[in-house]
Amino acid sequence: MKKVNIKALIEILFVSTKLGLTSFGGPIAHLGYFHEEYVRRRKWIDEKSYADLVALCQFLPGPASSQVGIGIGVLRGGIIGGVLAFLGFTLPSVIALILFALLMQGTHLSGAGPIHGLKIVAVAVVAQAILGMAQKLVPDLQRKSIALFALVGTLLWQTAYTQVSVILLSALAGFLIYKQHNESEESNIQFPVSRGFAIFCLSLFFGLLIILPILRGISSSHWIAMFDSFYRSGSLVFGGGHVVLPLLEREFVPTGWLSKETFLAGYGAAQAVPGPLFTFAAYLGTVFNGWLGGLFATFAIFLPAFLLIVGTLPFWNTLRHNPKIKGALMGVNAAVVGILIAAFYNPIWTSSIFTSIDFAFAAVLFSMLVYWKLPPWVIVIVGIIGGWLLKFL
């Protein structure tokens, strides 16, 4: 492991916390903030290595921007540096969402106008994410067809295994269709983690994915059930934070752990805070088990991301030149678009848009976000105020 001094670790924590307090706008915007801070200003990583790291994190399931931050932290300061980079970038939004969940519980806001406004904010934000991802991830007929399959399958076959099955079948389709696809670029990141430790991290990742459902089945512990749900959701998300929505919704709403209204209110609030959207787990965990549950859920949903980035980067130089692997990933990314469209309809649209006024307000928020380029926190504030005003119309 790479040895670093205390000064370097403090610097990693300080810089990542600054980013965690100021990085609004979702994963693509986060990568822009990282590039400005880590590549241009501080020169912790060069342009080529940064591009390679981003490519790897787009390849892996999990929150891409968080994994890039962890990777840079590890490159700069070893495993401890990666942990500090994660904590700095994540904790500001975790704390904010835990406080929001406690406020909701204390004042019974679930049926209030501002909460309805936050749900309409979720409509606008996810619609923007769908458009952006569709343009990039489904440019040809084959990938559009894979996305359509994922959309139909996810809507019509709603079981606990739907997401995994759709992703695996789409990966197979991508492998078969694009196995000769070749756009490889040179990659040679020197990662300060041994291959032995990397294999341990990957073994732990897959081991927990297998063992946790078994433990959940033989145990009545609410904490094990929570850990399994959040860990599995964090392990199976391709395409960014917005895609975690359908996974978490399937885990907790049909089972009665919480209502659609409470779920979507927290998702709307998550748009108002900087940092990764995966911190939505902090809100859900707090609703279930107070502030301790919020921290526990955050740890569970981000643990796969940490294990994967540490476990795969030492092997990335070999993997990324394999066109068959890249083809499978192209199929998975196309499926992500279909899954997100399905989630846009249910639960987001069906639980948020009830009248023509709701639709008009959603159109205004969408235009503010997409065409006027206003920051997400402005959209959230307008959504809260508008939701309150809608009560009087």
UniProtKB/TrEMBL annotation:
InterPro entries per record: Chr_Tranpt_l_chain, Chromate_transpt
Segment forming the signal sequence: none
Membrane topology field: Multi-pass membrane protein
Transmembrane residue ranges: 12-33, 82-103, 115-134, 146-177, 197-218, 291-316, 328-348, 360-390
Pfam families in UniProt: Chromate_transp (PF02417)
One Gene Ontology CC term in the entry: plasma membrane
Localization (cell): Cell membrane
GO molecular function: chromate transmembrane transporter activity
Domain of life of the organism encoding this protein: Bacteria
Alphabetic keyword roster: Cell membrane, Membrane, Transmembrane, Transmembrane helix
Family of this protein: Belongs to the chromate ion transporter (CHR) (TC 2.A.51) family.
Protein name according to UniProt: Chromate transporter
Species assigned in the record: Gottfriedia endophytica
UniProt lineage: Bacteria, Bacillati, Bacillota, Bacilli, Bacillales
